[in-house]
Backbone:
């Protein structure tokens, strides 16, 4: 089976999770991080999930799943070992053409969740189409070691530079050339080392008179925020 890779915008959308254990807690954490409106159905919750409920971050139906619990959901995750409940949830979600994932049961999913490495707005996904989660986890670990937190800052910087480049009006081919020139191999190292002089010199050499001084200041602030955050962690 071949899966179509896609990133979903779930901010504000109803996401129903069946189950309240450790697996559910991992799924809920990702849904909340992406802005999903989470509704949890389970008679019991882990301490982490209870705390999130007390903080008003999710809604909780303190009982077992019942037919109709998925009404209006955009996305459904069944994080339960009860095969009977798995079958019911899958049937209800499928009938409503909802996105459904039954944890660790690929045959009861119309989407699967890849292993992820996240660095700010940078997301690297690894999938084996459900055939070897262990291999996906191993590759994820390797990627996590290869792509440090500085890459999240690189993405943030490129996001600030994007409207500047597009405003130059050079057309798609010229824009591609500029973006490629900006992303030199040394860029992540400059960010990691907070080498503002090298970064500024590079940006000015590529963008020349088109460089927005306000944008340049915001990039410097991003770099300074990274330094401040690292200092707080080390204190």
Residues:
């Amino acid at each position: 089976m071949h899966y179509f890779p896609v990133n979903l915008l779930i901010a504000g959308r109803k996401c129903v999770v069946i189950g309240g254990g450790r697996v559910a807690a991992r799924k809920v954490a990702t849904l909340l991080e992406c802005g999903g409106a989470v509704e949890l159905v389970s008679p019991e919750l882990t301490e982490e999930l209870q705390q999130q409920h007390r903080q008003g971050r999710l809604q909780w139906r303190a009982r077992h799943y019942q037919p109709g619990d998925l009404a209006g959901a955009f996305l459904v995750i069944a994080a339960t070992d009860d095969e009977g409940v798995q079958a019911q949830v899958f049937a209800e979600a499928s009938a409503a053409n909802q996105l459904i994932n039954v944890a660790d049961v690929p045959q009861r999913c119309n989407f699967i969740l890849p292993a992820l490495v996240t660095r700010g707005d940078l997301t690297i996904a690894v999938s084996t189409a459900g055939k070897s989660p262990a291999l996906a986890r191993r590759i994820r670990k390797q990627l996590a070691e290869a792509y440090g937190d500085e890459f999240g800052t690189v993405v943030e910087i490129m996001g600030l530079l994007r409207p500047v480049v597009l405003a130059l009006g050079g057309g798609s081919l010229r824009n591609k050339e500029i973006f490629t020139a900006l992303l030199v191999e040394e860029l992540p190292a400059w960010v990691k080392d907070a080498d503002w002089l090298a970064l500024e010199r590079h940006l000015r050499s590529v963008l020349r008179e088109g460089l927005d001084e306000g944008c340049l200041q915001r990039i410097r602030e991003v770099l300074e925020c990274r330094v401040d955050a690292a200092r707080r962690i080390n204190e």
Q: What stands out?
A: The chain has two domains: 14-113, 150-234.
